[in-house]
Specification:
The complex is a heterotrimer. By secondary structure, chain A is mostly helical. Chain A has four domains: 45 residues; 114 residues, no CATH class; 108 residues, no CATH class; 134 residues, no CATH class. Helix content of chain A is 73%, strand content 1%. Chain A starts with a helix and ends with a helix. Chain B contains 16 helices and 21 strands. Among the domains of chain B are: 73 residues, no CATH class; 64 residues; 160 residues, Jelly Rolls (Sandwich). The relative contact order of chain B is 0.13. The two termini of chain B are 54 Å apart. Helix content of chain B is 47%, strand content 17%. Chain B is globular. Chain C has a domain of 82 residues: 3-Layer(aba) Sandwich (Rossmann fold). In chain C, 41% of the residues lie in helices and 21% in strands. In chain C, helix 4 crosses helix 5 and helix 11 crosses helix 12. The longest helix of chain C has 16 residues. Chain C is globular, with a radius of gyration of 23 Å. The N terminus and C terminus of chain C are likely disordered. Classes of the chains: A mainly alpha, B alpha+beta, C alpha/beta. At the A-B interface, helix 5 and helix 7 of A face helix 5 and strand 13 of B.
Chain lengths: 545, 605, 338
């Protein structure tokens, strides 16, 4: 009896164990190529917590992970905590040592590499006061990330991050002048066979970006939830930044021009690349105009199919409006009250006749044309959504601006304007030759005014505008030393870039000068820019806004 | 070097303590008294419940009375017999394996430790000492916690307690025995690790003699050479050599090399200065705010770590250290006269300033008695580094008269004030008390290393004592868990106290648990109601007990002197004396406790 | 002791066994007599032990109100089946357990008093010794525990090692010892302090016949040296051979206590055994017996075997728990007679 009882009990235990295992197997099933695995595996996928498993196999790391005997999670948590503690108490040496230990324990955890490399490069470096020390930690973060890419070969996210660190941290930090210089001279960082002119942080970053792109294009690695539009823009942007940077360091002429030329070419190639949009279909940034053309043609075809329908529809809807709405519509913007404004907006919206409405009307009124009209409608909708999608993505990367910029910067006058500004800067800073500096600045501004006039696609508040603005600020310093200022009429009259200053004076350094300039009235403005009609138009436009 | 707590002179620490705290000795007696009363109360409850009021009371009296008698009849011979037995047992339990493990750790340490950072010595030392601590504590834990239960299990304890052995001797013998074994282990580990550190830090550079640049004076005569060494061990040194190619290299990564020229051959000798034992003489720090008003602390720049507080530049704000016991003998070890200062300045900028240029500040010396102040000595802040300053003995005062540092600026009772100000508007200097000190002659790094090991030894003995005492009452695994929790809580004692004392965010243990489970942040209030009241009520009770427990917890992080050794500072003798005293306190207290635990339990079960 | 067939003997003698101690309460009487003559070494008063579990719930009553006294120079045997409370009694006497009720005194001191250990030696059931020590180290270690000075210790260790015959194995670790050798070194450690009272827990268990013999000789020798020995055993022959008095325990109760010879003597049976009697004399005796309606078996006072006594007491105790066997035994014997 007793024996039998214990036998039954064991059976019961087995059943309970099996029942308990069931949810575990459902939850924890690992994902395979064909199957997306259990709940946990799916969640891991969803939140991008997975550990990649391709890349260098490090025997040290494997041994250590094995030696934790399944306590890796605990060990990792403790070490993270320790790392945070060291960071808090500013013990950077031990902080880095702890990161190394962590790296051995979780070498395939992408977020770890990204997070802690960021910590070193961005957070730790700024805690130090000496530029050399800062650079040291910027570099350590970069090296750390590089180590991560060794463990996780062809991971586009890490590769792109590496490009970003090398490019943007070194090239955009407040200390970028020093960082770039240190980077160029860093024999320990660069491989011995890298030629000196390639030791530019932007060019190195471009290399990493190219690797990142190659990992997606050739190795078919997933981009995850990264936006392809920005991802693929990294390479041309690195080239653009490089061109910009060498100019600001005094390299002009053919070298600068060819750098910009390459940038333009890369930008063009980027524009013709198929990018997967959020809607799932592929777009090319360069195709916007083509689609717009298509749309126009299609709309014309639609108009032809049902001539006058648009008018009819518009009339019909007008009749349906209430008298209040009509009254509101009749008034001008200034006369309308808030409620009227609202009424008018609603009315206007209902008056708008879409292509879809026209298609529907054609289908209703001309059944024989229904099939053709529907087909046309679909094509219009498609063109429409492409245009919108491309437009959105163009905005994301500021497509038009950079396209224009790359072209303009190759022009002789733009190159010359840069060079003059740089010469002026040198004359002011190095030689303290105020007269010379002022003259060079003014020459540069005149050239800029010409370039800008010729390229209305370059708005005043673009990055170009703000970089010219920096030059203007320096010019103002020169004027100050000459006991002059932009507010002085004789200076102001000759100054050709008022609109640009208005658009870019974020710190309101020139508020007085602008006011004085505006008081002198439109004729003064007109005189200042008499040969630049388009500028004036834009000026008025911006004033309206 | 971060010194979170001031180190008091030994006797002050022992008898009086710092402000608003008790001396160690009175505290020890208070704790013993509290534990004794608690034990008595518990014993009384149990006994009275079992045997009734009269007989129970009688038994308690009997136990306490014999206890006292027996505590004073400890025989050294018996204790030594048990000590050597414990040592033999430890030996039989293959503690030697731990040495092998230690060597393996050292061998593979290079996987984690690259010397490519700016403070390789600090990293190596802190790793080695940390590894030693963990390993030795682990051994102490296993030896301590499983020994007595092993005897209970094998019943060998029957033949021991039926001899005229006092229970206290059994406990004490084990503590001493295992401590001795641990001592032997530590000596071996210390030797191995010292060699490991020295070997890991050792490296040589080469100099290409042809790359040296001749330095000439105006007339074109050679006065020396400039150059740099090869890059080895992730760094190089800049050189300024004399005409014979002799000289010291510049300091990089905390060390330099002696360079010797032999004709055209230039030899780089071994690294010097990696291991140091700076002996600081610390002062008392106070602050003045931007209006020149006295303050205990400076201002916060929003850092989570409140160790340093800051003074704003270009204002009257100043950090003021008062040193006492200053006399002319301080500079005796130097070949020049003056005041050698060590200064660690933390710079905080609110604007970039001129990138690449350090923030300038001023040092002034002041006689606290006469108020006489030297003229400002300007310096450029080396952020977060030990900046060795030297103040000449002859100084100008603010009117340009020459004054003598020791005669005019030191008060009659040997006090001297050092004022430091930041000179740049919108920039800040951060200081803690330990950040400015008078440099006394360096101690021996080897002896410092030994002292670091002594503090590890202290921790080991405490863990052993806890383990042995716990195992007098409970079985091995339970004793181990108990000791482990003691160690863990001891390492995080400050956090524990912070939770126990209540101002911690997110409430006590139960409330925190509720917040964790319900994913509520630590700031938002719990909905008022009976549930919340209950939770907080439980927490109050728990926190009360935690406060009690906190009194017993050894503060391992405070006992550890790894920070000193790793940062290259001499471990103060006062600190070692305090550690040893604490250790003695634990041995005595725990032996007595262990005696009563062993005495009041039935040996046979 | 006469050699007889125990079985037939049992049957025949059972019939004639009658009131072994005629009249007065015998055991108590015997005891008082003893105490008068020699100092009491161990004494228990209503000694009880209840084993409890973690929650304080009663699990087993291992010992119920034991009253026992042992005098100097005697060998006292505790006899009982497994689980009868023998070992518990020994542990209580040693202070390894604390009594639930009553008290145990040794040399007039409480059993929990450590100083009593100066004068006692204890051989546990199995020799619980440190197996990583050798014989010399073991004895030296225990010698130190008695705070013996080095010379005395050295001498004592040598003596004892020779006494227990481990001279050749004195430097071998105990883990290499055979069971018999372990017992012997165990005995040696019990004697290291030349104790006045020796407590032996199952001293002969696991020993071969020669070993058993030697152990018994040792006990008798200790007795002859005037030492008190308390031993517990379930091996009846051992007890019978060496003990002066025995206490029979069953289920934690004292069932029988007395001198071995007294207990085993059947008083109403006379056994005559003689040499050199003439046939007339024998005849005369037979006649005499016949005149008294007796039947001569052998002319002697026969003894029962301890085994028989023991089994009967245990059986009685199971039938009527909680009472002293003595009285019951008498009744039951009477009944058998009837």
């Amino acid at each position: 009896m007793n024996q039998r009882g214990s036998f039954y009990r064991k059976i019961a235990y087995l059943i309970v164990i099996a029942v308990l295992l069931l949810p575990i197997s459902r939850l924890g099933a690992p994902s395979t190529l064909r199957d997306e695995g259990g709940t946990l595996a799916q969640l891991r996928e969803e939140y991008d917590l997975g550990q990649a498993d391709l890349g260098e196999i490090d025997p040290a790391s494997e041994t250590i992970r094995f030696a934790t005997l399944g306590m890796r999670g605990i060990a990792v948590s403790l070490l993270w905590n320790k790392a945070n503690q060291y960071k808090k108490t500013e013990d950077w040496t031990n902080f880095r040592a702890t990161l190394r230990q962590l790296a051995k324990l979780q070498p395939y955890f992408i977020s770890f590499w990204r997070y802690q490399a960021w910590n070193l490069t961005y957070n730790v470096s700024v805690e130090l006061d000496d530029v050399q020390d800062r650079y040291h930690y910027v570099k350590k973060g970069i090296e750390f990330l590089k180590e991560g890419t060794r463990y996780n070969r062809d991971n586009p996210i890490l590769l792109a991050e590496l490009g970003w660190f090398i490019g943007n941290k070194i090239g955009r930090a407040d200390e970028h002048v020093q960082y770039r210089r240190l980077f160029k001279a860093d024999n320990e960082f660069h491989p011995a066979d890298r030629p000196p002119e390639q030791r530019d942080n932007w060019l190195v970053s471009k290399k990493w970006y190219q690797q990142a792109i190659a990992s997606v294009d050739d190795k078919k690695r997933s981009l995850g939830n990264k936006n392809p539009t920005t991802f693929y823009a990294t390479v041309p942007m690195a080239q653009i930044n490089y061109s910009d940077a060498i100019e600001s360091e005094g390299t002009f002429g053919e070298k600068a021009r060819s750098a910009w030329e390459l940038a333009a070419r890369l930008w063009g190639r980027y524009a013709h690349r198929d990018l997967r949009s959020t809607q799932g279909f592929y777009i090319r940034l360069a195709d916007q105009e083509k689609w717009e053309q298509d749309l126009k043609t299609l709309e014309q075809q639609l108009q032809k199919m049902g001539p006058g329908i648009q008018e009819t529809l518009s009339q019909e809807r007008r009749k349906e409006l209430s008298p209040e709405q009509l009254a509101a519509l009749a008034k001008t913007l200034e006369e309308q009250t808030d409620e009227e404004l609202e009424l008018a907006e609603k009315a206007e919206a209902s008056l708008r006749v879409s292509d879809r409405d026209i298609v529907e009307r054609i289908v209703r009124d001309f059944p024989e044309k229904a099939a053709a009209a529907r087909k046309l409608g679909t094509r219009i909708a498609e063109a429409d959504s492409r245009i919108r999608m491309i437009g959105n993505n163009r905005q994301v990367v500021n497509y038009e601006y950079w396209k224009a910029r790359c072209e303009i910067e190759q022009e002789h006058s733009a190159l010359k304007a840069h060079e003059l500004a740089f010469a002026a800067h040198r004359a002011f800073q190095n030689d303290a030759d105020l007269i010379q500096a002022r003259q060079l600045f003014e020459e540069s501004f005149d050239l800029w005014a010409k370039v800008l006039a010729a390229h209305p696609e370059l708005p005043d508040d673009s990055p170009t505008g703000s970089s010219i603005m920096d030059t203007v600020s320096e010019y103002a310093l020169v004027l100050e030393q000459l006991d002059l200022s932009l507010a002085d009429p004789q200076v102001a009259e000759k100054f050709p870039l008022w609109n640009l200053v208005e658009a870019n004076d974020m710190e309101r350094k020139f508020a007085d000068a602008i006011e004085a300039h505006q008081k002198r009235g439109p004729e003064a403005e007109g005189r200042g820019q008499e040969d630049e009609g388009s500028e004036q138009d834009r000026g008025q436009h911006s004033k309206q806004e | 070097m971060v010194l979170e707590h001031e180190i008091l002179p030994y006797f002050q620490w022992l008898l009086y303590g710092a402000d608003e705290s008790l001396g160690a000795l009175p505290r020890f007696f208070l704790i013993v008294l509290a534990v004794a009363l608690l034990g008595l109360l518990l014993g009384a409850i149990v006994n009275v419940a079992r045997h009734g009021l009269l007989r129970g009371g009688d038994r308690i009296y009997g136990i306490v009375a014999t206890g006292f008698r027996e505590l004073f009849s400890i025989s050294p011979r018996r204790t030594w017999a048990l000590t050597s037995l414990a040592m033999k047992e430890a030996w039989r339990r293959r503690v030697v394996v731990s040495l092998v493990l230690y060597l393996v750790i050292l061998l593979f340490a290079s996987w984690f430790l690259r010397t490519d950072n700016q403070e390789p010595a600090k990293l190596l030392l802190s790793f080695v000492l940390m590894a030693t601590t963990y390993l030795v504590l682990g051994i102490a834990l296993l030896l301590g916690a499983f020994s007595l239960p092993g005897d209970f299990k094998s019943k060998t304890i029957y033949t021991v307690v039926t001899k005229p052995v006092r229970a206290g001797e059994i406990i004490l013998g084990r503590i001493l025995g295992f401590s001795l074994v641990g001592t032997v282990l530590l000596v071996v580990m210390g030797g191995c690790s010292y060699i490991f550190v020295i070997r890991s830090l050792d490296h040589r550079h080469t100099i290409d003699a042809s790359s040296l640049v001749r330095v000439t004076d105006r007339e074109g005569t050679l006065i020396g050479y400039d150059g740099r060494t090869s890059t080895d061990a992730y760094h190089h040194h800049l050189l300024e050599l004399d005409t014979e190619h002799n000289g010291d290299s510049a300091v990089t990564s905390g060390h330099y090399h002696r360079i010797e020229g032999h004709g055209e051959q230039v030899r780089v000798l071994e690294p010097t200065g990696y291991l140091r034992a700076r002996v600081p003489k610390w002062g008392k720090l106070r602050f003045k705010d931007r209006k020149g008003v006295d303050k205990a602390v400076g201002i916060s720049v929003g850092s989570e770590w409140t160790y340093r507080s800051f003074i704003d530049g270009g204002t009257l704000a100043a950090a003021i250290w008062t040193f006492s016991g200053i006399d002319e003998s301080i500079d005796d070890y130097l070949d020049k006269e003056g005041l050698p200062l060590g200064l660690i300045t933390r710079v905080f900028r609110t604007h970039k300033g001129v990138i690449g240029r350090p923030i300038s500040g001023a040092i002034q010396l002041r006689n606290p008695q006469t108020g006489l102040k030297s003229d400002a000595i300007t310096f450029l802040a080396k952020d977060a580094q030990v900046d060795d300053q030297f103040i000449d003995r002859e100084l100008p005062d603010s009117e340009g008269n020459t004054i003598d540092l020791y005669n005019d600026l030191v008060s009659d009772d040997g006090e001297l004030e050092i004022w430091i100000q930041c000179l740049e508007q919108g920039q800040y200097y951060g200081y803690a008390q330990a950040d400015c000190y008078i440099r006394l002659p360096d101690g021996s790094p080897l002896w410092n290393y030994v002292k670091a090991y002594i503090s590890i030894w202290v921790q080991m003995v405490i863990v052993t004592s806890i383990g042995v005492t716990a195992s007098a009452l409970v079985s091995g695994p339970v004793a181990m868990l108990f000791t482990v929790s003691f160690i863990v809580l001891g390492f995080f004692r400050e956090f524990f106290v912070w939770i126990a004392n209540g101002p911690s965010w997110g409430g006590g243990p139960v409330e925190s648990l509720v917040r964790l489970v319900t994913q509520k942040n630590v700031i938002s209030k719990l909905d008022p109601g009976p549930g919340t009241t209950l939770i907080q009520g439980i927490d109050d009770v728990l926190q009360f007990f935690m406060q009690g427990l906190a009194q017993l917890l050894p503060d391992f992080s405070a006992l550890s002197t790894i920070g000193f050794a790793a940062h290259g500072y001499d471990i103060p003798g006062d600190l070692i004396a305090q550690d040893l005293t604490i250790c003695l306190g634990y041995i005595v207290g725990l032996s007595v406790l262990g005696y009563f635990l062993l005495r009041t339990r039935e040996i046979a079960r | 002791m006469s050699e007889k067939d125990p079985k037939s003997e049992m049957v025949t003698q059972a019939g004639t066994l009658d009131s072994p101690a005629a009249g007065a309460p015998p055991a108590a009487g015997a005891q008082t007599q003893e105490t008068d003559s020699k100092p009491v070494v161990i004494q228990t008063r209503a000694l009880s032990k209840v084993y409890r579990d973690f929650w304080g719930r009663q699990k087993v009553r291992a010992l119920k109100a034991l009253d026992l006294e042992g005098c100097q120079g005697e060998v006292l045997g505790l006899l009982g089946p497994n689980g009868s409370g023998k070992t518990t009694t020994i542990k209580l006497l040693l202070g390894l357990l604390f009594p639930s009720e009553g008290e145990a005194l040794i040399f007039g001191k409480s059993a929990t008093d450590v100083s009593k250990n100066e004068r006692i030696g204890y051989l546990p059931e199995e020799s619980y010794l440190y197996r990583f020590l050798n014989a010399e180290e073991t004895l030296d270690f225990y010698g130190r525990l008695f705070d013996m000075p080095a010379e005395v210790r050295q001498q004592r260790v040598d003596e004892l090692i020779r006494l227990v015959g481990l001279d050749k194995a004195r430097r071998r670790q105990l883990q290499e010892y055979s069971k018999g050798m372990t017992r012997r070194i165990g005995l040696a450690q019990a004697l290291i302090n030349d104790p006045d009272l020796i407590l032996l827990d199952e001293p002969t268990s696991g020993l071969d016949p020669i070993g058993t013999r030697e152990m018994k000789d040792m006990i008798l020798r200790l007795k002859s040296e005037g030492k008190t020995v308390v031993m517990c055993s379930h091996l009846l022959a051992d007890v019978q051979d060496v003990c002066d008095r025995i206490a029979i325990l069953h289920q934690g109760e004292l069932k029988e206590l007395g001198r071995v010879d007294t207990l085993l003597t059947v008083a109403d049976v006379t056994q005559i055994r003689a040499r050199g009697l003439s046939p007339e004399c024998q005849h005369e005796i037979r006649d005499c017996i016949a005149r008294h309606q007796g039947e001569l078996l052998e002319m002697d006072n026969p003894t029962t075997t301890l085994e028989e006594l023991f089994l009967r007491i245990v059986r009685d105790s199971e039938a009527r728990p909680g009472q002293r066997a003595k009285v019951e035994g008498q009744e039951s014997i009477a009944r058998i007679q009837g």
